[in-house]
Amino acid sequence: MPFSAVDTNTALIVVDLQAGIVGLPLAHPVQGVIARSTELIGAFRRHGLPVALVNVAGAPPGRTERGTTGGHARPAGWTDLIPELDQQPDDIAVTKYARSAFSGTGLAAQLRARGVTQVVVVGIATGSGVESTARSAHEDGFHVSLPVDAMTDGSPDTHEHSVTKVFPKIAETGTTAELLALLEGSRP
Description:
The chain is α/β, with parallel strands linked by helices. The protein has 6 helices and 7 strands.
């Protein structure tokens, strides 16, 4: 379903656009994902809307069939947000140790304190950090919008599954251009 609205108090959540992740093999060219994400960041900042920049520094300690990366050392700089995001003092900075940007970070409370009713989620990886964050936001009562051209995954199949099977149950989806048109049209 295409985007229907951009609430007055909408926040942008940018997931895991960090040095250690953008260089991984991805299903879609990362430069396009970065360009569309930074275009959204610029528009949200121009309109005085909250921007949350999220990085991941570990994983939950629980056992999984694939193992966990929570205890593995990462190279220096792995968690650094990419410079294209141009982090600003007013941005909400979130470091997570789980897939969802909401898990144990206080992000929901920070957004609610700003009166946020809707979130737009972009970044890497579609079927992991983006999907988990979108699910949490939906379950916490936020309206969720997902510009699917501003995200990618290491697996084309996982990306496609999230976009076609999961996202329609928890969010509205569309393109960055469609969301920006709504955002610009909803502001004086």
